[in-house]
Amino acid sequence: MTVRIGVITFPGSLDDRDAQRAVRLAGAEPVALWHGSHDLEGVDALVLPGGFSYGDYLRAGAIAALAPIMSEVKDAAAKGMPILGICNGFQMLVEAHLLPGGLIRNAHQQFIRRDQRLRVENSDTAWTNHFSRGQEIVIPLKNADGGYICSAETLERVEGEGLVAFRYVGVNPNGSLDDIAGLTNEHGNVVGLMPHPEHAVEPGFGPDTAAATRSGVDGLSFFTAAVRAVVGAAA
Predict the structure, then answer these.
(1) Which of 75, 194, 196, 220 is most buried, most CB within 10 Å of its CB?
(2) Active-site residue 150, yes or no?
């Protein structure tokens, strides 16, 4: 079975090609999709990539959440399709109410770029089933609007229902509540996170110095996990 994973390009997307490469390295077929389309082209899973969709006007991800293709994304999510939102894609998912809460300007008001340690809090999702709960991984982080916020009531539900997928370890880089780096929905098919797993899918890619991010391969497991979830659901 050839698993086909769609990567949606929005005006201002920066990491769509990187996500396509990650999909390919995971053994699946990447399918380029366009924000103005209503056709998901029969894909088995979806990635909403990082970038600055629509220039981050209004709020990061807010305009993209109203793009034509998001109607199909919402329908696909409701039917259980695996959907991953990375950075700007995570912002789109919360703006589209596919994940709870919101994302605001980093607490220190600066863009941040670093290798970020994460702890896997939920390994039962379509995108985390190749990790174990409590496992620590390193994923590159680069954002200006990554501070996770929500109401006290929502935070209690997110924590109580196990919807936290990833938590920052060592340092909270953006002031997110409870060190939250990523979330899942109740069914485990929709996952969003601020760090960029597509930038950690092959060894030796990018500079390897103390002054720059160092890529590893922890991010590849996100994409192989989705392939496993799709194949398992079809079996």
Answers:
(1) 194
(2) no
Q: Tell me the two tokens of residue 215.
A: 């890529």
Q: How many CB atoms lie within 10 A of CB 74?
A: 16
- 3-class secondary-structure state, position 192: strand
C-alpha distance from residue 148 to each of 100, 111, 133, 151, 234 (Å): 10, 15, 21, 11, 35
Tokens 């789109």 belong to residue:
92
Residue found under tokens 């997928």: 165
Would you mind telling me the total number of residues written for the chain in this entry? 235
Task: Give me the amino acid identity at 77.
Answer: A
* Residue in the block written with tokens 């990523």: 182
A 10 A CB-CB count for 27 gives 11
How far is it, in rounded angstroms, from Cα 131 to Cα 218? 9
Strand partners, 48: 85
Give CA separation, 20 vs 29, 31, 109, 208, 214, in Å.
8, 8, 31, 23, 20
Catalytic residue among 72, 95, 121, 196: 196
Burial class from Cβ neighbours inside 10 Å (0-12, 13-18, 19+) for residue 221 reads buried
Residues with pLDDT less than 70, the chain: 204-215
Q: Is the whole model's pTM more than 0.85, yes or no?
A: yes
Point out the catalytic residue in the list 72, 95, 121, 198: 198
C-alpha 218/C-alpha 228 separation (Å) is: 16
User: Model confidence over 132-159: pLDDT tens digits?
Assistant: 999 999 999 998 788 899 999 999 999 9
Active-site entry in 87, 95, 121, 130: 87
Which residue in 131, 49, 35, 118 sits closest to 83, CA to CA?
Answer: 49
Residue 11 has φ and ψ, to the nearest 5°, of -60, 120
Among this protein's residues, is 87 annotated catalytic?
yes
What DSSP state is assigned to residue 51? B
